[in-house]
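Late entry, T3D complex.
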Amino acid sequence: MEPLLVSMDAGVLTLTLNRPDTLNAFTTAMHAGLAAAMTRAETEAAVRCVLITGAGRGFCAGQDLSERDMNAVDIDMGAGLDARYNPLVRRMHALRKPIVCAVNGVAAGAGANFALACDIVIAARSASFIQAFVKIGLVPDCGGSYFLPRLAGTQRAMALAMTGDRLSAADAERWGLIWKCVDDAQLKEESGKLARSLASGPTRSLGLIKKAIYDSAHNDLAAQLDLERDLQHEAGKGKDFREGVKAFLEKRKPSFTGQ
Ligand code: T3D
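Prediction complete; structure with ligand written out below:
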């Protein structure tokens, strides 16, 4: 069974984590699939949005713990982060296209933080988020210690990380960790609708919006104003900007090409 299913439709590259028996825990092979899919998203102009979800009852239970040799003399748990998780999160963050995550079930450990590394997260009401690391004597990784305090604030991030308590999708929405919690039966339709709508949007502008929002995490106001100027300069050079304004003046729906 392929650990990652990849399909393309209407500009949306859909990635389905596909190891349902282990709640889609990450393996080296799944990471290889994700790395290849990221290359495709980065290089193929036809890909205008990425949609990530999981097969079965879980979204992702983090690193597959059976892949790690607990009898090894020297255990380096940082090595897997350097080799696989960190490059993945960096590429997701830098991708100049939107990434939508449809969290269909429990998201634990690196699985929870992989979801938070996506640009817009929609979760099924039955889904939940667990910073499971502390339960096995580890620390949040896959960007969790960066995303969590920024999204939920220091207190909530600290308590989630230190207790490993389960956070329901409804609370994740209330706390601002995710965009929306929807009824389970609506998840596929809602996330698909959002991904298709983004895929038919002004891709260049969406990529620049992503950079503006993420860079604001480390810019002061002066630097952010300069960045907005530079990004607007770049957006204004796009064909989609001209099309957007023309369509507005002609009172019709714009037809964006992503250029
Ligand atoms: O290694 C590195 O490179 C460093 C990176 C580390 C990143 C990390 O993600 S560390 C954190 C790893 N993840 C966890 O610690 C979570 C472990 N899983 C759980 O705590 C629970 O499974 C859940 C709370 C997520 C869900 O609980 P529940 O009761 O709904 O399901 P379950 O029965 O525990 O799991 C179902 C099956 O999936 C079960 O297999 P079985 O008994 O039916 O054959 C379980 O063993 C398997 N499974 C779940 N999580 C993992 C897993 N197998 C391997 N690795 C897992 N992470």
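The radius of gyration is 19 Å. Will revisit in the morning.
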